[in-house]
Design goal:
The protein has 484 residues and is an all-alpha fold. 74% of the residues lie in helices and 2% in strands. The chain has helices spanning 3-6, 24-54, 76-92, 94-104, 106-122, 124-130, 132-146, 149-160, 166-194, 197-218, 231-241, 255-259, 262-291, 297-327, 333-358, 361-373, 375-379, 382-389, 394-419, 425-449, 456-468, and strands spanning 57-60, 66-69. The longest helix is centred in the first third of the chain and has 31 residues, at 24-54.
Protein backbone atom coordinates (compact mmCIF):
# COMPACT_ATOMS: atom_id res chain seq x y z
CA UNK A 1 0.00 0.00 0.00
CA UNK A 2 1.46 3.41 -0.95
CA UNK A 3 1.61 6.59 1.15
CA UNK A 4 -1.61 8.05 -0.27
CA UNK A 5 -3.61 4.86 0.41
CA UNK A 6 -2.23 4.34 3.92
CA UNK A 7 -3.02 7.97 4.82
CA UNK A 8 -6.73 7.10 4.52
CA UNK A 9 -6.44 4.51 7.30
CA UNK A 10 -6.78 5.37 10.98
CA UNK A 11 -4.99 3.86 13.97
CA UNK A 12 -8.08 4.35 16.14
CA UNK A 13 -6.20 6.12 18.94
CA UNK A 14 -8.02 9.16 20.30
CA UNK A 15 -4.96 11.18 21.32
CA UNK A 16 -2.89 13.97 19.71
CA UNK A 17 0.31 12.97 17.96
CA UNK A 18 2.55 14.64 20.55
CA UNK A 19 1.33 12.13 23.16
CA UNK A 20 3.77 9.60 21.74
CA UNK A 21 3.34 7.11 24.60
CA UNK A 22 -0.22 6.43 23.43
CA UNK A 23 1.08 4.94 20.18
CA UNK A 24 3.41 2.00 20.52
CA UNK A 25 5.17 2.65 17.21
CA UNK A 26 6.18 6.09 18.48
CA UNK A 27 7.66 4.57 21.62
CA UNK A 28 9.76 2.34 19.35
CA UNK A 29 10.75 5.44 17.35
CA UNK A 30 11.85 7.25 20.51
CA UNK A 31 14.03 4.37 21.70
CA UNK A 32 15.51 3.97 18.22
CA UNK A 33 16.26 7.72 18.25
CA UNK A 34 17.99 7.38 21.62
CA UNK A 35 19.88 4.37 20.30
CA UNK A 36 21.24 6.38 17.37
CA UNK A 37 22.07 9.18 19.78
CA UNK A 38 24.17 7.05 22.15
CA UNK A 39 25.69 5.23 19.16
CA UNK A 40 27.11 8.47 17.82
CA UNK A 41 28.23 9.83 21.18
CA UNK A 42 30.38 6.71 21.44
CA UNK A 43 31.52 6.88 17.82
CA UNK A 44 32.40 10.59 17.69
CA UNK A 45 34.08 11.02 21.07
CA UNK A 46 37.49 9.92 19.80
CA UNK A 47 37.41 12.55 17.01
CA UNK A 48 37.36 15.28 19.68
CA UNK A 49 39.37 13.50 22.35
CA UNK A 50 42.24 12.76 19.97
CA UNK A 51 42.98 16.48 19.79
CA UNK A 52 43.41 16.59 23.59
CA UNK A 53 45.29 13.28 23.52
CA UNK A 54 47.92 14.59 21.09
CA UNK A 55 48.30 18.27 22.05
CA UNK A 56 50.99 19.67 24.32
CA UNK A 57 49.77 20.01 27.89
CA UNK A 58 51.35 22.11 30.62
CA UNK A 59 52.38 20.08 33.65
CA UNK A 60 53.87 21.48 36.89
CA UNK A 61 56.64 19.33 38.38
CA UNK A 62 57.38 21.18 41.62
CA UNK A 63 59.97 23.86 42.34
CA UNK A 64 58.10 26.00 39.78
CA UNK A 65 59.25 23.68 36.98
CA UNK A 66 56.86 23.58 34.00
CA UNK A 67 56.94 20.92 31.30
CA UNK A 68 55.01 20.62 28.03
CA UNK A 69 54.06 17.01 27.39
CA UNK A 70 51.88 14.98 25.02
CA UNK A 71 49.88 11.98 26.14
CA UNK A 72 50.43 10.44 22.70
CA UNK A 73 52.94 11.64 20.12
CA UNK A 74 51.05 10.63 16.97
CA UNK A 75 51.61 12.13 13.54
CA UNK A 76 48.77 13.41 11.33
CA UNK A 77 48.96 10.20 9.31
CA UNK A 78 48.72 7.99 12.42
CA UNK A 79 45.73 10.01 13.67
CA UNK A 80 44.06 9.52 10.29
CA UNK A 81 44.53 5.74 10.54
CA UNK A 82 43.22 5.67 14.12
CA UNK A 83 40.11 7.64 13.15
CA UNK A 84 39.42 5.56 10.05
CA UNK A 85 40.01 2.19 11.77
CA UNK A 86 36.45 2.19 13.09
CA UNK A 87 35.20 1.86 9.53
CA UNK A 88 37.29 -1.25 8.81
CA UNK A 89 35.07 -3.15 11.22
CA UNK A 90 31.96 -1.21 10.24
CA UNK A 91 32.38 -2.41 6.66
CA UNK A 92 32.52 -6.10 7.60
CA UNK A 93 29.11 -6.50 9.26
CA UNK A 94 26.84 -4.43 6.98
CA UNK A 95 25.55 -7.13 4.61
CA UNK A 96 25.63 -9.98 7.18
CA UNK A 97 23.42 -7.77 9.39
CA UNK A 98 20.37 -8.55 7.26
CA UNK A 99 21.03 -12.29 7.45
CA UNK A 100 21.61 -12.14 11.21
CA UNK A 101 18.40 -10.14 11.66
CA UNK A 102 16.37 -12.78 9.82
CA UNK A 103 17.80 -15.47 12.07
CA UNK A 104 17.89 -13.78 15.48
CA UNK A 105 15.56 -10.78 15.08
CA UNK A 106 16.45 -7.23 14.05
CA UNK A 107 15.76 -5.69 17.46
CA UNK A 108 18.01 -8.26 19.18
CA UNK A 109 20.87 -7.52 16.80
CA UNK A 110 20.50 -3.74 17.23
CA UNK A 111 20.52 -4.01 21.02
CA UNK A 112 23.42 -6.46 21.18
CA UNK A 113 25.52 -4.41 18.76
CA UNK A 114 25.19 -1.21 20.76
CA UNK A 115 25.64 -3.05 24.06
CA UNK A 116 29.00 -4.40 22.86
CA UNK A 117 29.94 -0.91 21.66
CA UNK A 118 29.21 0.50 25.13
CA UNK A 119 31.57 -1.97 26.81
CA UNK A 120 34.33 -1.28 24.26
CA UNK A 121 33.88 2.47 24.75
CA UNK A 122 34.50 2.03 28.48
CA UNK A 123 37.70 0.15 27.58
CA UNK A 124 38.98 2.76 25.09
CA UNK A 125 41.33 4.64 27.50
CA UNK A 126 42.91 1.34 28.57
CA UNK A 127 43.36 0.39 24.90
CA UNK A 128 45.00 3.73 24.09
CA UNK A 129 47.53 3.40 26.90
CA UNK A 130 48.27 -0.11 25.69
CA UNK A 131 49.48 1.33 22.39
CA UNK A 132 48.11 2.57 19.09
CA UNK A 133 47.69 -1.01 17.87
CA UNK A 134 45.34 -1.90 20.73
CA UNK A 135 43.35 1.30 20.17
CA UNK A 136 42.92 0.41 16.50
CA UNK A 137 41.77 -3.10 17.44
CA UNK A 138 39.25 -1.62 19.87
CA UNK A 139 37.90 0.75 17.20
CA UNK A 140 37.67 -2.02 14.60
CA UNK A 141 35.60 -4.10 17.05
CA UNK A 142 33.39 -1.09 17.79
CA UNK A 143 32.87 -0.67 14.06
CA UNK A 144 31.83 -4.31 13.70
CA UNK A 145 29.36 -3.95 16.58
CA UNK A 146 27.83 -0.75 15.21
CA UNK A 147 27.83 -1.96 11.61
CA UNK A 148 24.66 -4.00 12.15
CA UNK A 149 22.63 -1.07 13.46
CA UNK A 150 21.45 0.89 10.41
CA UNK A 151 20.54 -2.14 8.23
CA UNK A 152 18.68 -3.75 11.13
CA UNK A 153 16.82 -0.53 11.96
CA UNK A 154 15.54 -0.53 8.38
CA UNK A 155 14.19 -4.03 9.02
CA UNK A 156 12.55 -2.73 12.21
CA UNK A 157 10.85 0.04 10.20
CA UNK A 158 9.74 -2.40 7.51
CA UNK A 159 7.58 -3.94 10.27
CA UNK A 160 6.63 -0.84 12.29
CA UNK A 161 6.41 2.16 9.91
CA UNK A 162 3.22 2.77 7.87
CA UNK A 163 4.08 4.12 4.37
CA UNK A 164 2.54 7.54 5.02
CA UNK A 165 4.75 7.97 8.13
CA UNK A 166 7.86 6.30 6.74
CA UNK A 167 10.00 9.36 5.98
CA UNK A 168 9.20 11.04 9.29
CA UNK A 169 9.78 7.94 11.41
CA UNK A 170 13.04 7.00 9.70
CA UNK A 171 14.43 10.53 9.69
CA UNK A 172 13.39 11.21 13.30
CA UNK A 173 15.25 8.05 14.27
CA UNK A 174 18.36 9.18 12.43
CA UNK A 175 18.10 12.66 13.94
CA UNK A 176 19.54 10.88 16.96
CA UNK A 177 22.78 10.62 14.99
CA UNK A 178 23.12 14.38 15.00
CA UNK A 179 21.92 14.91 18.54
CA UNK A 180 24.54 12.38 19.62
CA UNK A 181 27.16 14.12 17.52
CA UNK A 182 26.28 17.48 19.08
CA UNK A 183 26.40 16.09 22.61
CA UNK A 184 29.70 14.35 22.00
CA UNK A 185 31.36 17.29 20.28
CA UNK A 186 30.13 19.75 22.90
CA UNK A 187 30.84 17.73 26.03
CA UNK A 188 34.03 15.89 25.08
CA UNK A 189 36.16 19.02 24.77
CA UNK A 190 34.64 20.47 27.94
CA UNK A 191 35.11 17.27 29.94
CA UNK A 192 38.66 16.83 28.60
CA UNK A 193 39.58 20.32 29.81
CA UNK A 194 37.69 20.11 33.13
CA UNK A 195 38.68 16.57 34.12
CA UNK A 196 40.43 14.39 31.55
CA UNK A 197 39.89 13.03 28.05
CA UNK A 198 39.33 9.56 29.56
CA UNK A 199 36.22 10.79 31.40
CA UNK A 200 34.29 11.32 28.16
CA UNK A 201 34.58 7.64 27.24
CA UNK A 202 33.38 6.57 30.69
CA UNK A 203 30.35 8.89 30.53
CA UNK A 204 29.18 7.85 27.06
CA UNK A 205 29.95 4.17 27.58
CA UNK A 206 27.78 4.18 30.70
CA UNK A 207 24.95 5.89 28.78
CA UNK A 208 25.16 3.12 26.19
CA UNK A 209 24.75 0.46 28.88
CA UNK A 210 21.63 2.20 30.24
CA UNK A 211 20.09 2.37 26.75
CA UNK A 212 20.86 -1.34 26.20
CA UNK A 213 18.71 -2.29 29.20
CA UNK A 214 15.83 0.00 28.15
CA UNK A 215 15.79 -1.29 24.55
CA UNK A 216 15.48 -4.95 25.50
CA UNK A 217 12.88 -4.15 28.14
CA UNK A 218 10.54 -2.28 25.78
CA UNK A 219 11.01 -3.01 22.06
CA UNK A 220 9.69 -6.11 20.26
CA UNK A 221 10.31 -7.51 16.78
CA UNK A 222 6.96 -6.45 15.29
CA UNK A 223 3.49 -5.19 16.31
CA UNK A 224 2.30 -8.81 16.44
CA UNK A 225 4.87 -9.58 19.17
CA UNK A 226 4.10 -6.53 21.33
CA UNK A 227 1.60 -7.27 24.11
CA UNK A 228 1.18 -3.57 25.01
CA UNK A 229 0.05 -2.35 21.58
CA UNK A 230 -3.67 -1.67 21.07
CA UNK A 231 -5.58 -3.93 18.70
CA UNK A 232 -6.55 -0.96 16.50
CA UNK A 233 -2.98 0.28 16.15
CA UNK A 234 -1.71 -3.22 15.38
CA UNK A 235 -4.36 -3.70 12.68
CA UNK A 236 -3.61 -0.25 11.27
CA UNK A 237 0.12 -0.98 10.91
CA UNK A 238 -0.32 -4.48 9.48
CA UNK A 239 -3.00 -3.40 7.00
CA UNK A 240 -1.02 -0.38 5.80
CA UNK A 241 1.97 -2.66 5.17
CA UNK A 242 -0.13 -5.36 3.48
CA UNK A 243 0.77 -7.96 6.12
CA UNK A 244 -1.63 -10.78 6.96
CA UNK A 245 -1.60 -11.44 10.71
CA UNK A 246 -0.74 -14.98 11.73
CA UNK A 247 0.86 -15.88 8.39
CA UNK A 248 4.53 -16.75 8.94
CA UNK A 249 6.84 -14.54 6.94
CA UNK A 250 9.61 -16.33 5.11
CA UNK A 251 12.16 -13.82 3.87
CA UNK A 252 13.46 -14.40 0.36
CA UNK A 253 15.89 -11.89 -1.13
CA UNK A 254 15.90 -11.51 -4.95
CA UNK A 255 19.68 -11.19 -5.22
CA UNK A 256 19.81 -11.03 -9.01
CA UNK A 257 17.27 -8.23 -9.08
CA UNK A 258 19.04 -6.31 -6.32
CA UNK A 259 22.50 -6.61 -7.88
CA UNK A 260 21.33 -5.62 -11.38
CA UNK A 261 19.05 -2.73 -10.40
CA UNK A 262 20.01 0.78 -11.51
CA UNK A 263 17.84 2.18 -8.71
CA UNK A 264 19.83 0.22 -6.12
CA UNK A 265 23.12 1.41 -7.62
CA UNK A 266 21.85 5.01 -7.55
CA UNK A 267 21.26 4.58 -3.82
CA UNK A 268 24.70 3.03 -3.35
CA UNK A 269 26.50 5.86 -5.18
CA UNK A 270 24.47 8.50 -3.33
CA UNK A 271 25.33 6.88 -0.01
CA UNK A 272 29.05 6.88 -0.82
CA UNK A 273 29.06 10.51 -1.95
CA UNK A 274 27.07 11.77 1.03
CA UNK A 275 29.22 9.75 3.43
CA UNK A 276 32.46 11.14 1.99
CA UNK A 277 31.73 14.65 3.19
CA UNK A 278 29.80 13.61 6.28
CA UNK A 279 32.44 11.29 7.72
CA UNK A 280 35.30 13.54 6.65
CA UNK A 281 33.87 16.49 8.54
CA UNK A 282 32.78 14.27 11.42
CA UNK A 283 36.31 12.99 12.02
CA UNK A 284 38.45 15.88 10.75
CA UNK A 285 36.56 19.09 11.54
CA UNK A 286 38.15 19.58 15.00
CA UNK A 287 41.58 19.22 13.39
CA UNK A 288 40.56 21.62 10.58
CA UNK A 289 39.39 24.23 13.09
CA UNK A 290 42.65 23.92 15.00
CA UNK A 291 45.02 23.85 12.01
CA UNK A 292 43.39 26.23 9.52
CA UNK A 293 41.30 28.52 11.74
CA UNK A 294 43.38 28.25 14.97
CA UNK A 295 40.68 27.31 17.48
CA UNK A 296 41.48 25.64 20.81
CA UNK A 297 40.25 22.11 21.62
CA UNK A 298 37.36 23.20 23.88
CA UNK A 299 35.94 25.74 21.42
CA UNK A 300 36.63 23.54 18.39
CA UNK A 301 34.43 20.81 19.86
CA UNK A 302 31.54 23.21 20.45
CA UNK A 303 31.84 24.79 17.01
CA UNK A 304 32.10 21.37 15.36
CA UNK A 305 28.69 20.58 16.83
CA UNK A 306 26.94 23.52 15.11
CA UNK A 307 26.55 21.88 11.67
CA UNK A 308 25.07 18.75 13.24
CA UNK A 309 22.62 20.80 15.31
CA UNK A 310 21.49 22.40 12.07
CA UNK A 311 21.24 19.00 10.38
CA UNK A 312 19.18 17.59 13.22
CA UNK A 313 16.66 20.40 12.75
CA UNK A 314 16.77 20.02 8.97
CA UNK A 315 16.01 16.29 9.27
CA UNK A 316 12.67 17.00 10.92
CA UNK A 317 11.80 19.50 8.20
CA UNK A 318 12.94 17.24 5.35
CA UNK A 319 11.07 14.20 6.70
CA UNK A 320 7.83 16.15 7.14
CA UNK A 321 8.07 17.74 3.67
CA UNK A 322 8.87 14.41 1.98
CA UNK A 323 5.74 12.77 3.42
CA UNK A 324 3.62 15.90 2.85
CA UNK A 325 4.46 16.10 -0.86
CA UNK A 326 3.53 12.43 -1.30
CA UNK A 327 0.33 12.46 0.77
CA UNK A 328 -0.93 15.56 -1.07
CA UNK A 329 -0.10 13.94 -4.41
CA UNK A 330 2.07 16.92 -5.35
CA UNK A 331 5.08 14.74 -6.14
CA UNK A 332 5.49 11.03 -6.74
CA UNK A 333 7.78 9.06 -4.46
CA UNK A 334 10.39 8.99 -7.21
CA UNK A 335 10.25 12.76 -7.60
CA UNK A 336 10.52 13.31 -3.85
CA UNK A 337 13.56 11.05 -3.50
CA UNK A 338 15.29 12.44 -6.60
CA UNK A 339 14.58 16.14 -6.03
CA UNK A 340 15.40 16.13 -2.33
CA UNK A 341 18.60 14.12 -2.81
CA UNK A 342 19.93 16.14 -5.74
CA UNK A 343 19.03 19.49 -4.17
CA UNK A 344 21.11 18.40 -1.22
CA UNK A 345 24.14 17.41 -3.29
CA UNK A 346 24.32 20.53 -5.44
CA UNK A 347 23.84 22.81 -2.43
CA UNK A 348 26.52 21.00 -0.45
CA UNK A 349 28.97 21.28 -3.35
CA UNK A 350 28.30 25.02 -3.71
CA UNK A 351 28.78 25.81 -0.03
CA UNK A 352 31.84 23.59 0.42
CA UNK A 353 33.50 25.35 -2.53
CA UNK A 354 32.57 28.78 -1.17
CA UNK A 355 33.86 27.92 2.29
CA UNK A 356 37.18 26.77 0.81
CA UNK A 357 37.59 29.96 -1.22
CA UNK A 358 36.89 32.23 1.74
CA UNK A 359 38.58 30.26 4.53
CA UNK A 360 37.88 32.82 7.25
CA UNK A 361 36.45 31.77 10.59
CA UNK A 362 32.83 32.98 10.60
CA UNK A 363 31.98 32.72 6.85
CA UNK A 364 33.63 29.31 6.52
CA UNK A 365 31.85 27.89 9.57
CA UNK A 366 28.54 29.19 8.18
CA UNK A 367 29.24 27.53 4.81
CA UNK A 368 30.15 24.21 6.44
CA UNK A 369 27.05 24.39 8.64
CA UNK A 370 24.73 24.94 5.65
CA UNK A 371 26.46 22.22 3.62
CA UNK A 372 26.18 19.59 6.36
CA UNK A 373 22.61 20.62 7.26
CA UNK A 374 21.53 20.13 3.65
CA UNK A 375 22.62 16.51 3.97
CA UNK A 376 19.27 16.00 5.73
CA UNK A 377 17.54 16.26 2.37
CA UNK A 378 19.86 13.58 0.95
CA UNK A 379 18.87 11.30 3.82
CA UNK A 380 15.21 11.81 2.90
CA UNK A 381 16.24 10.66 -0.57
CA UNK A 382 18.69 7.76 -0.60
CA UNK A 383 18.40 7.18 3.16
CA UNK A 384 14.75 6.05 2.92
CA UNK A 385 14.94 4.73 -0.64
CA UNK A 386 15.55 1.06 0.21
CA UNK A 387 12.13 0.83 1.87
CA UNK A 388 10.55 2.12 -1.35
CA UNK A 389 12.36 -0.30 -3.65
CA UNK A 390 11.75 -3.45 -1.60
CA UNK A 391 10.46 -3.32 1.99
CA UNK A 392 11.25 -6.99 2.63
CA UNK A 393 14.84 -6.61 1.40
CA UNK A 394 15.43 -3.10 2.77
CA UNK A 395 17.86 -4.37 5.41
CA UNK A 396 20.01 -6.17 2.84
CA UNK A 397 19.95 -3.22 0.43
CA UNK A 398 20.94 -0.81 3.20
CA UNK A 399 23.66 -3.24 4.22
CA UNK A 400 25.12 -2.98 0.72
CA UNK A 401 24.66 0.81 0.65
CA UNK A 402 26.32 1.20 4.04
CA UNK A 403 29.15 -1.16 3.08
CA UNK A 404 30.07 1.04 0.14
CA UNK A 405 29.41 4.20 2.16
CA UNK A 406 31.79 2.90 4.80
CA UNK A 407 34.56 2.89 2.22
CA UNK A 408 34.16 6.66 2.20
CA UNK A 409 34.59 6.64 5.98
CA UNK A 410 37.80 4.63 5.57
CA UNK A 411 39.27 6.49 2.61
CA UNK A 412 38.31 10.11 3.34
CA UNK A 413 40.06 10.54 6.74
CA UNK A 414 43.21 8.82 5.44
CA UNK A 415 43.26 10.98 2.29
CA UNK A 416 42.69 14.08 4.38
CA UNK A 417 45.45 13.09 6.79
CA UNK A 418 47.88 12.64 3.90
CA UNK A 419 46.85 15.88 2.19
CA UNK A 420 47.14 17.98 5.37
CA UNK A 421 50.49 16.78 6.65
CA UNK A 422 51.78 20.38 6.82
CA UNK A 423 48.51 21.72 8.29
CA UNK A 424 48.32 24.64 5.84
CA UNK A 425 45.23 26.49 4.60
CA UNK A 426 45.87 25.49 0.98
CA UNK A 427 45.95 21.81 1.93
CA UNK A 428 42.55 22.13 3.60
CA UNK A 429 41.17 23.99 0.56
CA UNK A 430 42.01 20.96 -1.58
CA UNK A 431 40.13 18.72 0.87
CA UNK A 432 37.02 20.88 0.44
CA UNK A 433 37.28 20.93 -3.36
CA UNK A 434 37.50 17.14 -3.49
CA UNK A 435 34.41 16.86 -1.28
CA UNK A 436 32.46 19.19 -3.58
CA UNK A 437 33.49 17.13 -6.62
CA UNK A 438 32.33 13.91 -4.96
CA UNK A 439 28.94 15.55 -4.25
CA UNK A 440 28.51 16.41 -7.93
CA UNK A 441 29.18 12.80 -8.96
CA UNK A 442 26.38 11.74 -6.62
CA UNK A 443 24.08 14.41 -8.08
CA UNK A 444 24.48 13.15 -11.66
CA UNK A 445 24.15 9.43 -10.92
CA UNK A 446 21.14 9.76 -8.61
CA UNK A 447 19.29 12.12 -10.94
CA UNK A 448 19.37 9.70 -13.86
CA UNK A 449 19.09 6.31 -12.10
CA UNK A 450 17.01 6.83 -8.95
CA UNK A 451 13.52 5.43 -8.43
CA UNK A 452 11.07 5.58 -5.54
CA UNK A 453 8.80 2.79 -6.75
CA UNK A 454 8.44 -0.81 -5.64
CA UNK A 455 10.65 -2.76 -8.03
CA UNK A 456 9.40 -5.58 -10.31
CA UNK A 457 11.84 -8.09 -8.84
CA UNK A 458 10.49 -7.36 -5.35
CA UNK A 459 6.87 -7.63 -6.52
CA UNK A 460 7.57 -11.00 -8.15
CA UNK A 461 8.93 -12.46 -4.91
CA UNK A 462 6.11 -11.06 -2.77
CA UNK A 463 3.40 -12.23 -5.17
CA UNK A 464 4.88 -15.73 -5.16
CA UNK A 465 4.95 -15.74 -1.35
CA UNK A 466 1.34 -14.58 -1.24
CA UNK A 467 0.23 -17.43 -3.50
CA UNK A 468 2.21 -19.93 -1.42
CA UNK A 469 0.46 -18.63 1.71
CA UNK A 470 -2.97 -19.22 0.18
CA UNK A 471 -3.64 -15.75 -1.25
CA UNK A 472 -3.80 -14.63 -4.84
CA UNK A 473 -2.00 -12.10 -6.99
CA UNK A 474 -5.08 -9.97 -7.40
CA UNK A 475 -5.11 -9.15 -3.73
CA UNK A 476 -1.54 -7.90 -3.68
CA UNK A 477 -1.49 -4.32 -2.34
CA UNK A 478 2.02 -3.15 -3.10
CA UNK A 479 1.55 -2.82 -6.82
CA UNK A 480 4.12 -1.18 -9.04
CA UNK A 481 3.34 2.46 -9.72
CA UNK A 482 4.08 4.14 -13.02
CA UNK A 483 7.22 6.22 -12.67
CA UNK A 484 7.38 9.79 -13.82
Amino acid sequence: MDAVQSSKLCDGIDAPRWMFWKRRRYVVVLLAFLGCMVMYTMRVTLSIAIVAMTENRTVSRGNDTVEYVQAFDWSSSVRGHVLSSFFYGYLVTQVPAGVLANRFGATNIVGTGLGITAVLTLLTPLSAYGGVGWLIVNRVLQGMAQGVTIPCLHIVWSKWAPPNERSRMVLFTFAGVFVGTIISMTLTGFVAKLWSWESAFYIFGTAGCVWFVAWFAVVRQSPECDRFITLREKEFILKSLGIVEGVPEKIEHPWKGILTSKAVYATIVAGFCQSWGFYNMLTQMPSFLRDALHFEVQSSGSISALPYAAMGIALSIAGYLADWFQIRNILTTTQVRRNFNCLSFITQAAFMTTGALILRAVPTIICITVAIAMGAFAWSGYGVNALDLSPTSAGVIMGIVNSVSTLAGIIAPVVTGLLTSNKTADEWRLVFYITAGVNMVGFVVYWFWASGELQPWSIEVQERKRVENGGDKKGFDNRLSVED
